[in-house]
Known about the structure:
The chain starts with 7 loop residues before the first helix and ends in a 9-residue tail after the last strand. Strand 1 (about 25-30) and strand 2 form a beta hairpin. By secondary structure, the protein is mainly β. It contains one helix and 14 strands. It has a single domain, classed as YVTN repeat-like/Quinoprotein amine dehydrogenase (Methylamine Dehydrogenase, Chain H), CATH 2.130.10.10.
Amino acid sequence: MVLVPVAPGLASSSFVAFESGPVRPLAMAPDGTRLFAANTPGNQLEVYSILADGSLQHLTSVPVGLEPVAVAARSADEVWVVNHLSDSVSIVRLDPLPGRVVRTLLVGDEPRDIVFAGPGRSRAFITTAHRGQNVPYDPQFTTPGVGRADVWVFDANDLGTGLGGTPKTIVQLFGDTPRALAASPDGTKVYAAVFHSGNQTTVLG
Length: 205
């Protein structure tokens, strides 16, 4: 038997995680009482109470899908979590604590972000790639002029009876790798940022 000494530097080196990049990892409850965070390497939603002095108190951790990258809160007790690797959205109820996933929506490949807009902020918009095991269409991979970015739209008050939910519509965008979404203050418009848009734009400053 040969004993090989381990260098102190190696023994004490920190672990470096490798996971999908977060897009909207933090969200605050509309009433300002809670902060929600996507724990990407832990595959969990972390829930914090916002105290009167602004400090945070951890309340609970709720297991969701694989590699959550975006969070959106409908209320202090209902949070939607986008799972990048699972191609899904977990709907989490926090009343009562410790909370649980009450519904899982199946969406396109590599979902990235979510916002609520429309009447009463009741429409959920989710960016995905124009492909995946859950898409209800032929992606036409070899057809010129077909966009490679989708925005799935769900009615938060009527998710449908299907196992993975039923989207109201899927909006196709001419681009690739959709990322962030933003809603106008009145909720009548939703803007999508496409990572590989192919429009030759850049930012100068």
